[in-house]
């Protein structure tokens, strides 16, 4: 019975360390992964924790054999591991998993927050992938504060070219 509790304890400790410090076992898991990316350290550690806990509980609370406790642990571990795999994959591949780059700004509507002079920089505010961003902006003609614009080009880090919404081109 002790082996089940040791497996559960070590797995829970490693799972906690993975949550706090990042997926430090990922390289090891990648080396043995044949599932196309569904296997991760979170899945393996969740399986082992559930296996140990359920196996230990079955032995401690019933007159079941070690074989039955092991089978119960495998079934519970598979269910918890599969759930952890689905949840981890959904979070990893979710809509916020995309790293926003300057190319994502082009074509996006924005609002001028600091007027843009014809020969200088102003500021715009826009929302991309649910994230509000303020950028320096240039335009071919003066654009007043509060005007609606569309980002038409990237001019450099944090600087874009905009066109007023009514003309849509420069």
Automatic annotation (TrEMBL):
Organism domain of life: Bacteria
TM spans (from-to): 38-59, 66-87
Keywords, ordered alphabetically: Membrane, Transmembrane, Transmembrane helix
Domain Membrane protein NfeD2 N-terminal transmembrane: 3-80
Stated name of the protein: Membrane protein NfeD2 N-terminal transmembrane domain-containing protein
The keyword Transmembrane helix is assigned to this record: yes
Pfam family, one: NfeD_TM
Alphabetical list of InterPro entries matching this protein: NA-bd_OB-fold (IPR012340), NfeD2_TM (IPR058653)
